[in-house]
């Protein structure tokens, strides 16, 4: 990856990116609060849309050619890019990943969470399945933070993927998607460089101030092999195993790192890993 293909941001630009990151975080926070049995993924989409607009931004997902929604909502064996629909009704015990992004000014934020739908309606649920799904989500989320912690100390970007892979495989027999990876972020939601969630032979881009990336491990309970459904968007596991997706946008600056899509900059989650994020004022 050449330096010329990666736009390094100034500290002032990173501060502007923070607005888009916080709008993205707010949208996901409100969607998380609304997740319950009986709600449709289209209703969740509307919540995210209204939250981003209230923050002075707009959906950057709608800027992707052919996509008309603010979030992607992927349920159970769907990994990423699930399209919101009035017909997609959440049930107790479902595992649902919500991916969302906001643009404010010319700057972008991108983040994703995974939630287990709570059993609020008294439905009969398989408790073992729910526990396995929660563990899958927890492993995926913690692998994200392991990758972010690695970024704080890395010389080269592909050290992030090594840390993510090492953590995931230390937790059990999980699969890591290979066709879909993280990316740079800034004036566009998707920029160079690629951010792998697994170890590769190349060192990758040199980590330096101004590097802004979205790290997003996508982990499955079975095989990593996937298929695209008939809608042309939704990515599902071929073996119907459950999936989880977590993501944050992170800036490297001249004083350290800052998680742009976390309200505390990542302080709470990074503290146990020995990393202290540094805000830019």
From TrEMBL:
Keyword annotations of the record: Aminopeptidase, Hydrolase, Metal-binding, Protease
Boundaries of every Peptidase M24 domain copy: 16-253
Keyword RNA-binding among record annotations: no
InterPro entries: Creatinase/aminopeptidase-like, Pept_M24, Pept_M24_MAP, Pept_M24A_MAP1
A Pfam family hit: Peptidase_M24
One term of GO molecular function: metalloaminopeptidase activity
SUPFAM superfamilies registered for this protein in UniProt: Creatinase/aminopeptidase
Record GO cellular component, one term: cytosol
Keyword hit for Metal-binding: yes
Protein's GO biological process: proteolysis
PANTHER family for this protein: METHIONINE AMINOPEPTIDASE
Protein name: Unannotated protein
Organism: freshwater metagenome
């Amino acid at each position: 990856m050449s330096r010329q293909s990666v736009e390094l941001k100034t500290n002032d630009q990173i501060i502007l990116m923070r607005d888009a990151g916080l709008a993205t975080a707010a949208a996901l926070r409100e969607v998380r609060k609304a997740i319950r049995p009986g709600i449709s993924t289209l209703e969740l989409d509307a919540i995210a849309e209204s939250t981003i607009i209230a923050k002075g931004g707009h959906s950057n997902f709608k800027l992707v050619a052919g996509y008309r929604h603010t979030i992607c909502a992927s349920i159970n064996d769907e990994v990423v890019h699930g399209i919101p629909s009035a017909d997609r009704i959440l049930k107790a015990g479902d595992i649902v990943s919500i991916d969302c992004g906001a643009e404010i000014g010319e700057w972008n934020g991108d983040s994703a969470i995974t939630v287990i739908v709570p059993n609020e309606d008294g439905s009969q649920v398989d408790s073992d399945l729910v526990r396995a799904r929660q563990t899958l989500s927890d492993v995926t989320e913690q692998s994200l933070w392991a990758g972010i912690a690695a970024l704080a100390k890395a010389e080269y970007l592909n050290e992030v993927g090594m840390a993510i892979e090492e953590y995931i495989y230390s937790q059990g027999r999980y699969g890591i998607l290979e066709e879909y990876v993280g990316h740079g972020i800034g004036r566009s939601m998707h920029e160079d460089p690629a951010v792998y969630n697994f170890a590769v032979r190349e060192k990758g881009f040199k980590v330096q101030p101004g590097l802004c990336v979205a790290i997003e491990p996508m982990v499955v309970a079975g095989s990593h092999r996937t298929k695209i459904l008939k809608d042309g968007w939704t990515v599902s596991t071929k073996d119907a195993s459950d999936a989880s997706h977590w993501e944050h946008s992170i800036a490297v600056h001249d004083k350290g790192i800052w998680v742009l899509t976390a309200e505390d900059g990542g302080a709470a989650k990074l503290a146990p890993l020995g990393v202290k994020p540094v805000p830019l004022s």
